[in-house]
Amino acid sequence: MERVILIKYGELTTKKGNRNFFVKTLANNIKYKLQDYSVTISSDLSRMYISFNEKDLNKILEQLNLVFGIHSYHVAYSCPSDLQSICDLLTETVEKEHFETFKVVVKRSDKTFPKKSNELAPIFGGVILKNKKNIKVDVHHPEVVVTVEILKDRTLLYYNAYQGLGGYPVGSQPKGLVMLSGGIDSPVATFLAMKRGIKIEAVYFESIPHTSLEAREKVITLVRKLSKYTNTIKLHIIPFTEIQEEIYKNVKDDYVITIMRRMMYRIMEKLAKKEHAYAIINGESVGQVASQTLHSMYVINEVTNMPVLRPVACLDKLEIIDIAKKIDTYETSILPYEDCCTVFVPKHPVINPTLDQCLKEEAKFEFSNLLEKAIYESKTITIKNQDVNEYQELL
Amino acid sequence: MIYFDNSATTPVREEVLETFCEVTRKFIGNPNSLHQLGFNSRKLMHEATRQVADLLHVKENEIIFTSSASESNNLAIKGLLDFYPNRKKLIITTELEHASILETLQQLSEDIDVKFVKLNENGKIDLEDLKAKLEEEPLLVSIHHVNSEIGIIQDIDTIGDLIKKYPKTFFHVDGTQSVGKIPLALDNVDLFSFSAHKFYGLKGIACLVKKEKVNLKPLISGGASQTIYRAGTPSVALIASLAKSLRLILNEQADNYQKVEVLNQKLRDGLKDEERIVINSSLSCSPYILNFSILNTKPETIIHKFDQFEIYIATKTACSSNETYSKALFALTKNKNISSSSLRISFSSRNTIEEVLTFIKILKEEIL
């Protein structure tokens, strides 16, 4: 019996005018995810169908679970749209399903079908009860919702519903640059930004020799883990040592972090323009540390006019950790390597910095050349979601 | 030459040896050094460790590299006893264990209680007896997966399922004779030992899988190493070689099993009509091992006779060859004659049917 995967779109059904573009983007993303399998994807404005080889089903479902823009998906049987064929299909398939309570939902989008939905539901329910022992109808809390969708060209029948990730397909928005330190918050921020369809490029500020080679590896691992929700992610590695040392040398102790963040934002803006990105994204969460108080955000944000998205701004740490665990970045994030934000931490960073003071501190040294140089000397690597093993031949 | 002593050790696989040499030459840094060379070694060590963990379906931080399965077994037992000094000092095991378990327990016998689970006639442990003993809340149950002398396979999944219900009891499995040979699931196992040289790896590198929830005190103290459970500069080359030999053997495990099953059956067919021969390995044993006794003979003499034909076999296990009779076999058969005249043939996938036939021919014409 042939089956087909039925995909229902998430929020994108609300996009009237450019729905076509969203659907195309989603279809492309799904195609990319399923490139290793022999599948045929067809779509219309309200749903998508994937025909597949049965042997690949579990792998395919796993992949679909990583695609933004899918509200839900179902593995459906299909048959011609006539009453006898539908009843036959139910008889044939219901035995293999395991459940004790159920209800039938009939969706009749082919309005020329002779019987109405509310007439059909009891007929189908009857077929099920006749063919499966020890089960009963429960319209309030059924274990399984048996859905029959009567379309023009065929009827679909499914017993299952897989929840998709929701959101918009990645790429339905332009690029955004995310500041990735290696901590817990920024990978979660990245995930949430991608959920809104933003195509991500990651930026890592590196302070070798103050930070270790492991810290960079850690960020690469995080990007790799995040890239499973899209296709590939570019990682820009910004050499930040010189700027940080200058700051440390010139700026008064409690303003070191504030000025450092302002420098990072400036670099982010320059890089965004160069890379045609339209937003800066980071993992700041209001009040979490001194540089993330509203006062701090206000004076740090002052250096740029670009939108700065802070997807986890209003989440508690525990809520952030929950997501980090779900997307499998938590274990990597808690590896104990120092990053550029933790190496030069003053004892008492200022909690309520003022713009005046920032400007005074920044007047103490010449930094614009350093910013240009950092961007000029940055390295970019493209990271795929495969556990690439550099030492494959050795191992 | 016919080599039938693969449970004692196997010849190294050429690619594995190449890995060892190349890593030794190229990765000169101590993985604990901070500089680039140290980083390179460290990264390779992590990749190798991750590969081993993935292959065994455990986490990277659950892999402890050691020098031998004997060390792994020692670390499991002594490390647990040292870390949990206030728990009941009772260890449950079987009489079929390797010397590195039994001797270790003997060594500790003044301080701990050891109880042996009853075995049923085919050598599998008696689950009812184990249940009863578990009620005493032992610190540890240590049971082999495949016995090294006779090839008896214990159902570690079922045993682990039982033990899981006793939160104060840990479950250690000696998998030295099973890794790469028979399917393995470590879901219900807390500690698991194995060694690379049993599957075409190098001697000198082994592993103790230690699940996250288990704690151990190290036997060897010192500075940072691959894990905190064993000090000493890690040999990245040996670790890489283990990762490679494990990957390669698991790739061919199913094919090898079928091949060795045929060899085992051929040998059984050749032995079954001989009056003086008793086959000690039942059909439910691992096909890699076939133990039989030639009654009223000294196995040492027979081994030396076979030597003349360049055929290499064993009596008991290599690690307990000096005793006069096989403790494991005696525990199973309660028969001195059988257990003092036993021989062990242990196969690898590299053995052939022709070798088995030659062995049978020489056995019948020259030995019996």
Please compute the radius of gyration of chain B using only Cα atoms. Answer: 21 Å
Question: How many domain modules of chain B?
Answer: 2
Mind telling me the CATH superfamily name of the largest domain in chain B? Type I PLP-dependent aspartate aminotransferase-like (Major domain)
Overall structural domain count of chain A: 2
Gyration radius of chain A, rounded: 26 Å
Low confidence ranges of chain A: none
CATH topology label of the largest domain in chain B: Aspartate Aminotransferase, domain 2
Number of discrete helical segments of chain A:
14
> In percent, how helical is the residue content of chain A?
25-40%
**If interface size is counted as residues with C-beta under 8 Å from the partner's C-beta, which chains form the largest one?**
A-B, 9 and 16 residues
- Give the name of the CATH architecture of the largest domain in chain A: 3-Layer(aba) Sandwich
Largest sheet of chain A: 9 strands, mixed
Structural summary, described in words:
The complex is a heterodimer of chains A (395) and B (368). Chain A has 395 residues and is of the alpha/beta class. Chain A has 2 domains: 3-163, VC0802-like (2-Layer Sandwich), CATH 3.30.2130.30; 175-384, HUPs (Rossmann fold, 3-Layer(aba) Sandwich). The model of chain A has no long low-confidence stretch (mean pLDDT 91). Chain A has helices at 19-33, 57-64, 83-94, 117-131, 185-195, 213-226, 241-250, 256-275, 294-301, 317-326, 330-333, 340-343, 355-362, 368-376; strands spanning 3-9, 40-43, 47-51, 70-79, 101-108, 136-137, 144-150, 155-158, 162-163, 175-179, 199-206, 232-239, 277-281, 308-309, 379-384. Chain B is α/β, with parallel strands linked by helices and 368 residues long. Chain B folds into 2 domains: 2-8 and 252-367, Aspartate Aminotransferase, domain 1, CATH 3.90.1150.10; 14-249, Type I PLP-dependent aspartate aminotransferase-like (Major domain) (Aspartate Aminotransferase, domain 2, 3-Layer(aba) Sandwich). In chain B, the strands form 3 sheets. In chain B, strands 2-8-7-6-5-3-4 form a 7-stranded mixed sheet, with helices on both faces. Chain B has a 3-stranded antiparallel sheet with strand order 9-10-12. In chain B, helix 6 (156-163) links the parallel strand 5 and strand 6 (170-174). In chain B, helix 1 runs antiparallel to helix 7, helix 2 (36-56) runs parallel beside helix 7 and helix 3 (69-83) packs parallel to helix 4 (99-107). Chain B starts with a strand and ends with a helix. The model of chain B has no long low-confidence stretch (mean pLDDT 94). Classes of the chains: A alpha/beta (395), B alpha/beta (368). The A-B interface holds A 212-214, 217, 389-391, 394-395 and B 19, 22-23, 34, 36, 39, 42-44, 47-48, 51, 240, 243-244, 247.
